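Example record for the data management plan.
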Amino acid sequence: MVFKNAISWFEIPTKDLNRAQAFYEKIFDIKMMALDLAQIKMRMFPLEDPMGVGGALVHNDQFYKSSSSDGPLVYLNANPDVQIVLNKIEAAGGKILVPKTEISKEYGFMAMFIDTEGNRIALHSVPKA
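Corresponding structural encoding:
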């Protein structure tokens, strides 16, 4: 089996869904779509291609736990430049852990932050050739 993308969906836990939504909408200049199911409330990141990689902020006290150190690390797309998003993190209530750092000429840049919910999240951008 060959994967087009290694990830198909991700969920970022929240303690306060409205606060988390405001944070991510502010740092990425986006509008998130609400999807509230019986047990889980979600705010979905915009998705251009329904078959592409997608994700959401999620809230359910019994199923999700925010963490700044445990569990998988999600890298969100910060193209065209990680620094544009980093410049908004602290004003939106987050904390920068790792500033813009070059991975390599080929693989671009990364950074890491703690969001308003206490989650460790990373950013990635690749400069245009």
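Summary line stored alongside the record: The radius of gyration is 15 Å.
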